Sequence to fold (617 residues):
Amino acid sequence: MRAISRLFIAIGLGPIGLVPIGLAPIWPGPFAATPGLAQALAPVIGPNPQGKATDPGTARLERSWNQLDAQLKALDALIPPDREPAPKVENATPRLPASLLTPNAAPRGALSTSQANPAPPLSLPTPIQLKGGGLVQGLSLEQSLALAFANSASLQAQREEVAASLALLQAQLGTYWPRISAFANGSYGQEGSTTTANQANNNLGFGQLFNPAGTGIVGSGGTALPGPFYVPSGGSAADVTSTSTFSAGLSLDYALVDFARTPRIKSARAQLTNARNTYANEVRKLQLQVSEAYYQLQQADQLVRIQDANVRNDLVILQDTLDLKQAGLVPRLDVLRRRSIEASNQENLIQALADRAVARRRLAVVLNLPPEINPSASDPIALQARWPLNLEQSLLAAYQDNPELQAILATRDALAQQKQATAAGLLPKLSLFAAGGTSTSNATISNITIGGGGCCGSSLLPDSTTNSWDWSIGLTINWLLFDAGTTSGEARALAKREAATMQRYAAQRNDIRLRLEQAFFNHEASLAKLSSARRAVSASLEAFRDVKLRYLSGLSNELLLSNTQDQLINSLINRLTATVNVNITYAQLLRELLPVSQDPNRTIAPTLQLGSKSSAY
Fold:
């Protein structure tokens, strides 16, 4: 009875038949490898001193055992030899690895909002953040969903896609308005020039003002002077002109008739609808991912408790078997079998610890938590109610306003409008243009030099300014008459893509039905299996109690005890699996019918149920 009471302490009745049990390393001693299978079997020796079997039946049995021993040695030789020597059977159970205990530590508290801020998108974890395996913090399913909606990188990327599509639509709407541009330019430059008269200008008949000296013009001193406009042959003038200019104005362009403008705007609007429906579908997918990751973490937590209780129970039974062996009530075979079972169950516990560490990290990735945070499920396992709709109602509701299908339809509309816009390239386009402006320039002449009697003085203005203005208005028409089939080929390609989109709609419609039916049938099956699993747990627990009493009383053997213990553990695992599958399939059904806003700026409230409330598990 001492062993029975210790067993009930090890596997007490909690939410799923077990109470949370800590993972303190109660097994002393270092890790050691198990001996080879062939090494544990000694060759069969005959009944006579020379080791020769005299009876024919015994000889055949001896040859069979020798053949089996040889085969076992050959199989054992395929396994690489252990680095450490094989441990003795009597060695104590080794401790659990510290590398697994650290990420499986109990949570230090609830995860706060400040701890859940995601790392910058382009950053990488630092050694300090990764040191020590991370900080384990607890959080609920609703908190997980809220964090995912706020932190998810994929959802944030889709929000940016919606904003980009909206900006493109606004850009296309601007084509209904004229384009007004302002222009201005200024410049400064210098130019040097030399003008030379190749022939005198006194033979043009312009009068004495163009005559050379001695033709009637006398200076104040009585000296004969040439005419003021006389230029002798070879006379020249050189100068440097500095010019600064500035001009400014406005121009207007307006497409009066453009057959491609309206289809482009409709295509941009359809692309915005596609982006918004894709965002809504991303919300549905993200909620399912978070729910599945959370439920799987709950399952991993409970599996660790089950396997830990199983190992503790193995130690209790092993001690009882050792006591019975010492009293001569059971053979040595029972002790060896119990040690083998305890070692195998410890392997299951080690794997369960690894699975829980991976499940915690998987949830952290879905929630986009900081690198130093490891989440732990703080909610107890609660069974979701039966799905409130039948299969037909679920399918009809799933097809209605489904964002996956609506996104495909929006893509088809966008392609159809792009086809219209491309085909409109063959139609005429009428545009209005208008422009007006003013300009000013200043010219300064410097470094004037003359030679050969000089010339051109009347045309040299040392400093001058010129102002001007202009305006224009008109119409332009563009009509593509021939492009060797380029435009029509592009339109045909868009038409084919539109047809392909229709086929994708059909494929997605069928995929939605398959997903929903698979989730619906598995949900119903999980509920039915849960009822059977509960009955199996009750029966297995009673059977284990009875066989343990019979074993301690000498009325049953250890093999039956081991089989009954395995049945109990398997029934507990089956009940846990059925419960988690009920919740996961409910989340999968909810994913197909979850009402989601298409506005990425609206806060998303987590929705865990469709109709009835959940029941305690």
